[in-house]
Each structure stands twice: as C-alpha cells, then as structure tokens.
Amino acid sequence: MKKITAIKPQFPRISRIFPESHKFVQFITIFKKMFLAFVFTSIFVFMLFILADLYRNYGENQIVQAQREKLISEINTWKSFSQKYPNYKEVYFQIAVREFELGKYSEAGNYLQKALFIDPSYGEALKLKKALTGK
After folding, report:
1. pLDDT given for residue 27 in this prediction
2. Using a CB cutoff of 8 Å and minimum separation of 24, what contacts does 112-121 make?
3. How many Cα neighbours within 13 Å face the side chain of 2?
4. Whole-prediction pTM value?
5. Domains, in order of start, for the chain
C-alpha cells in the first residue's frame, strides 16, 4: 500500500521584483521626492505671503489707532474750551470736524448745530453740513 502525502505549494524560484537600480523605480522615487519638495515649498511661500500681509495690516492698524487717539485727545481739548467759551462758534465747529473724521456723524451734527446756532451764515459749517446730509 502506498502512502498518500500532501503536496506542498512551491513558489517559483525566479521572482520578478524590480531591482532598485531599475530606471523606472528610480524615476518614481525621484518624482515623489520632487513632488513633496514642491508641496512643502509652496506651503512655505504661501505662509510667508500671509505673514507679510499680517505684518503690513498690523502696521496700518497701529497708524489708524494712533490717529483715532489723537482725534479723541483733540476733541477733549476742544470740549474743555467749549466750557470756557460757550459762545465761540469755532470751538463747536472744530469738535464737529473731529467727530466727523471719527465717523460719529450724529455727534458731529449736534456740535454743528450749536456752531450754526451761534452764526447761521458760518461758511465752513455750512460746507460740513452739506457733507453730513448724506450720512
């Protein structure tokens, strides 16, 4: 009687793996590295542009903030003059101009009315009143 044995699968002796020195594999490897370098460089350059824009905006914001503080200081100075000289039209006009520059149009209108109440024919105040009509 013959003994039946199981046949074990055998792999081929010659495998078909591309060696590392093959040109196609080298091209793919180099292409991957170049692509990654391009992506990271692009991201870095993009971030540099964003940082430059942020720095420029920060500088502009500092200038605007300084101008606002200067206008508020001038308004406070002119308001102290208005307490000393309540019938002086120029004081109210100067306050109205600075409030207008700050974008506080209703405040500017109030002080402009006081200046025009003192002198209804005040030319500069009438020009500012025309500028305020649309706002």
Report:
1. 78
2. 115/89, 115/90, 118/87, 118/88, 118/89, 118/92, 119/89
3. 3
4. 0.63
5. 23-133 (1.25.40.10)
